[in-house]
Amino acid sequence: MTASAIREILKITQEPSVISFAGGLPAPELFPMEAIKRAFDTVMEKYGPASMQYSTTEGHLPLREWIAGQQGVPADRVQIMTGSQQGLDLLGKVLISEGDVVLVESPTYLGALQSFQPYLPRYVEMPTDEHGIDIDALEALLKTTKAKLLYAVPNFQNPTGRSLSLERRERLVELTNQHGVIVIEDDPYGKLRFTGVELPSLYHIALRNAGGDHDKVNVIYSSSFSKTLVPGLRDAWVQASMPIIQKLIQAKQGADLHTPTLNQMIVAELVEDTLPKQIEIVKKAYGERAKYMLSQIGQHFPEGAHYTVPEGGMFLWITLPESVNTVTLLSEAVKRKVAYVPGSPFFALGGGENTLRLSYSSANPEQIERGMKALGETFAEALSK
């Protein structure tokens, strides 16, 4: 096991004067605190001591039924998790044996790499471009590589902010099904679209191709309330075929018995009214912050800096000239009171030393302006040497 690069960076950015674009932190000033307080009181009245009691491993049934209704799946195909990170860990435990080939995007979410690594997979990277995974390259890989799993973040990918196009989603589902590859679709940001048109999930494309048979779907779908509601309640879910759900239940029993009962009940009280309103509030704020950060990058960053233009989510990705090493430059940026995440930890097989991830979700315009100016100076100085 290894430490999370992001968590280690967050330790050095606790000083209030440091502007941090490092962590993927939802904006705390947008949290629906009054609604959460009301939901807590409602839960206390409705459930009393039961809200503090052990409960089923599968999760609070009203919450599972609500998710099932939204997703168009049976409630018994929904497993509540203590954050989507637990879902990734337990999926690794259930599905990965030593030496199994796991296909990952290049770059990919480093939390997934950290979750899967203890089970000793062999990572194979899939090339990506502005439209997500290069499906022609994936097809060639599948002809020569016996893969067990494919892990992807199709919507507003962490770390790049890119989204997988509809045509590529269709082909990815077809190819993986043909080659017997299980797909883990990680979708914590899908509801946070602030421009463009919503695209169908890989799960629903696979379900359509399977004629509506949920147990013939080769896609496992994972999502969370952390980015749309609040992260501190640690409520997420996985939906999958029944054989996988049954094994996840067993794995979760050994991990933590069940996700905290009270937290699930609070979320269940919020999903009908507060959640849709909260999603609209967050989308508007993040869209404005992303637009402003992009304008400041164009104004302050040196020539040769390329960046993604996300249609939603919380991140964008910077690629600098190859002579720039963002790992070694982080300390120089922190001296200027700004922090980011170097890109190299997001590459399963190494590389990406000239890249970085920026999060715009929890920064105000003044912080974005000062931070982009400081980063621009840091990178320009490095390029001048």
TrEMBL record:
Segments forming domain Aminotransferase class I/classII large: 33-375
Named cofactor requirement(s): pyridoxal 5'-phosphate
Record InterPro entries: Aminotransferase_I/II_large, Class-I_PLP-dep_aminotransf, PyrdxlP-dep_Trfase, PyrdxlP-dep_Trfase_major, PyrdxlP-dep_Trfase_small
Alphabetical keyword list: Aminotransferase, Pyridoxal phosphate, Transferase
The keyword Zinc appears for this protein: no
GO biological process, one term: alpha-amino acid metabolic process
Coiled-coil ranges (or none): none
UniProt superkingdom: Bacteria
Molecular-function annotations in GO: pyridoxal phosphate binding; transaminase activity
Keyword Transferase: yes
SUPFAM superfamilies, per the entry: PLP-dependent transferases
Pfam families per record: Aminotran_1_2
Binding partners and assembly: Homodimer.
Family (UniProt): Belongs to the class-I pyridoxal-phosphate-dependent aminotransferase family.
Name of the molecule in the record: PLP-dependent aminotransferase family protein
Record organism: Deinococcus psychrotolerans
